[in-house]
């Protein structure tokens, strides 16, 4: 009789252990699956942020920076076709691709948008009004408190390089 109850106890212990092991395995597999899905989702978001927002921003930052370096005297072509288009493109990318802006850069994006809004408004008043001031050397908004936020641009360039390296290896 004791042998029978020991056998039943042993079978119960083995079955309980198997059930517990199965439950733990299922829970672990679910956790692993969710973790992998989250990692894939984060990778996918980062890749989309780079390709649809950060890389195009970086190209426009480079383009407008090079235009300013070429600017030796009043040059309406550079101002209207390169700087204006670049400024509009950067502002529009930030507005249309806001879901791809890294959370740490949202305030910086807002400062860039504000600068470009003010610059474009002043450009329209100065260059595109009924009586444009074509004698002004260039459109400038620095003294009005809306100077270009150089630090914000640098943060976007830095995160672009960081994300690129994370995704594709070397940034060179």
Could you give the topology of this structure?
Blueprint: H1 2-70, H2 76-96, H3 106-127, H4 150-168
Helix pairs in contact: 1-2, 1-4, 2-3, 3-4
Oligomer: single chain
User: What percent of residues adopt helix (DSSP H or I)?
Assistant: over 70%
Count of DSSP strands: 0
Beta strand %: under 5%
**Largest sheet at a glance?**
none
Stretches with pLDDT under 50, minimum 5 residues:
none
Class from helix and strand fractions: mainly alpha
Write down the overall mean pLDDT.
86
Elements, N to C (H/E): HHHH
Gap between N and C termini: 78 Å
Determine Rg (CA atoms, Å). Answer: 29 Å
Question: What is the number of helical segments per DSSP (H or I, 4+ residues)?
Answer: 4
Shape: rod-shaped
Structure notes:
This protein is an all-alpha fold. The chain has a domain at 50-168. Helices cover 76% and strands 0% of the residues. The chain has helices spanning 2-70, 76-96, 106-127, 150-168. The longest helix has 69 residues, at 2-70.
List keywords for this structure.
172 residues; mainly alpha
Can I get a quick summary?
With 172 residues, the protein is an all-alpha fold. It has 4 helices and no strands.
């Amino acid at each position: 009789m004791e042998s029978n109850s020991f056998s039943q106890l042993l079978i119960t212990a083995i079955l309980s252990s198997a059930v517990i092991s199965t439950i733990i395995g299922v829970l672990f597999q679910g956790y692993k699956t969710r973790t992998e899905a989250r990692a894939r989702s984060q990778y996918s978001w980062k890749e989309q942020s780079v390709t649809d927002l950060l890389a195009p921003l970086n190209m426009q930052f480079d383009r407008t920076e090079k235009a300013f370096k070429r600017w030796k005297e009043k040059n309406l072509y550079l101002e209207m076709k390169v700087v204006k288009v670049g400024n509009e493109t950067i502002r529009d990318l930030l507005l249309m691709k806001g879901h791809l802006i890294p959370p740490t850069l949202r305030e910086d994006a807002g400062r860039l948008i504000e600068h470009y809004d003010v610059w474009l408004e002043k450009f329209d008043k100065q260059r595109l009004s009924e009586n444009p001031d074509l004698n002004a050397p260039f459109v400038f908004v620095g003294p009005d408190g809306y100077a270009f936020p150089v630090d914000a641009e640098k943060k976007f360039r830095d995160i672009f390089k960081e994300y690129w390296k994370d995704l594709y290896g070397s940034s060179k």
